[in-house]
Amino acid sequence: MSHPPPAQLEAARLDALRKLDLLDTPPNEAFDRITRMAAQLFKLPIAAVSLTDTDRQWFKSRVGVAHCSIPRERAPCAEVADTASMLVIPDLLDDPFYCDSHLAANGVRFYAGAPLNTRDGYCLGAMCVLGLEPRSFSDTERAGLADLAAMVMDQVELQHALGRVDPVSGIPNRTQFFDDMADLAIDRPEGEARLAALVNLATVEQLSNAVRAMGAAYLDEIAREAARMLRTALGPTRRLYHVGVTQFAFLAEPGEDLGDFCDWLGAWLDLRAASMTSRFVTTSTFGVVPFAVGGVQPLELLRDLYSAAIGALDGPHRVRVFSAEQNAAVVRRFRLVNEFGAALDDDSQLRLVYQPKVELATGRCVGAEALLRWRHPALGEVSPGEFFPVIEQTVLARATTRWVIERALRQLASWHRAGLAQQVAVNVSAVNLLEPDFCAWVLARLREHDLPPTALAIEITESALMGNRQLAGATLDGLVAGGVQLAIDDFGTGYSSLAYLQSMPAKVVKIDQSFVRDLDQDERKRALVATMIKLSHDLGQVVVAEGVETAAEAQFLRGAGCDQVQGYLYGRPMAPEDFERWVCAKWTLPRPRVARQLEPACA
């Protein structure tokens, strides 16, 4: 009996076994056929394909035995795995090591096992035959058992190859890409400069449309067609990998120039655009990543390739070289989305600030807009212009809007109880308008906080209604019917039209700050803003101008008949207590009855 191999070698052997994904898998006729053949060939009652796991011998295939595993301790197959060589025991009871083994205790007297060796030299276990009587084993029989073990390994390699070759394109898949990249670090000089490329054949939206219109088989045809073209273009010396449904990756030749390589990729895209059947419904891009052999993990390389290929969709060129700076922005956006959910459950991170709305004719504060702010525990203050557009495109949009409305109504109720009667406006995203229960939920929360519906204003951008105007319109109609005020936010930046304004049940139009900025110095802006104000007034709507920062801007707006303004000239977004003090100190509102902290500022 040989000594067990060192722990490091055993760990590598077990890793090789697990990578093949054979353990605890269902029976397979290909293996069972070989096992039956072994029992018949040697005229023995028991045969098995035995895999040596950490503490057991597990039988991928077996004849003449009911159980699927036995303990590894004192199992002859374990010795085969340890030594990677054939083992024959004519009589277990005569063997000092195996005489009291599990097999011997169950009546087994004869054992012969041939090693199941991988091409990398790891032994997975044994092709074994067993008898209930002692017997000899000739050299011819040894050779026959070795042949059967080789047949088992051929089947293992074949089935493993099926897990490494994409069934649609017939070329190596992502698993093979990872393995070959690991081998590259062994075969090539460490630090050697290389280039990798990934082609993304279509956007997610294009794939979705294609499946809806043509079925999943259409995607398979796109992949097969691209695979044929790429194999032809790459030639026999470069290997192509099918790493995603419509993504293929490959390496440039050693020493190939980055500029020449990118030009070649661009030429291939031109060829595809001119010849492939899917060219009219898909947009293809290439991502390129320069890397040093041994200096990057395969998974990271593939991630960077995909990031560059997707990034190429936003630029004028369809080939983009990976940029660490651009990727850092992508990673940051993903981090914000990934961690915003926790922020919703942690009141120490999110808060609302309130920017006053001022009536131009009287100088009176008539309300405030509630604005969301995020103080990330590691990143610090994150601009709403950075995080909100990202959150708005995720499933967090619903929860975020409800968080904002609930906190705003809670604060509004506190102000009303204190005699500080205000209207608070909140921004609502497009996805909220498609929620069938959104209107009922808002009205219920107003009742719960004992607030009149007119105390709440819902601000919605023009583009928010474009996704599903019928359902969104029904939600807005329900809110207006319930007494909630509706405002069109960022007016002039979306889908403005007379028909749109006429059909919207909004009583307020907010002119976007991009039209107000430098208004006093831009004659075209003054003409546009004056027209917006007159048009809105003719339709019976109140006009609010955002982003007013100078007295000259305010003077023009007052002369043009603008009703209300927001902006730094009057007040920045403030914490609730600061807004209370500002109201008392600056504007003619009734003194609060309860809020004691306001008394010094209002005295």
UniProtKB/TrEMBL annotation:
Gene3D superfamilies to which the protein is assigned, alphabetical: 3.30.450.40, 3.30.70.270, EAL domain (3.20.20.450)
Protein name, entry field: EAL domain-containing protein
InterPro entries associated with the record: Cyclic-di-GMP_PDE-like, EAL_dom, EAL_sf, GAF, GAF-like_dom_sf, Rev_trsase/Diguanyl_cyclase
SMART domains in alphabetical order: EAL, GAF
Record-annotated EAL domain positions: 333-587
Organism: Massilia niabensis
Pfam families per UniProt: EAL, GAF
Highest taxon of the lineage: Bacteria
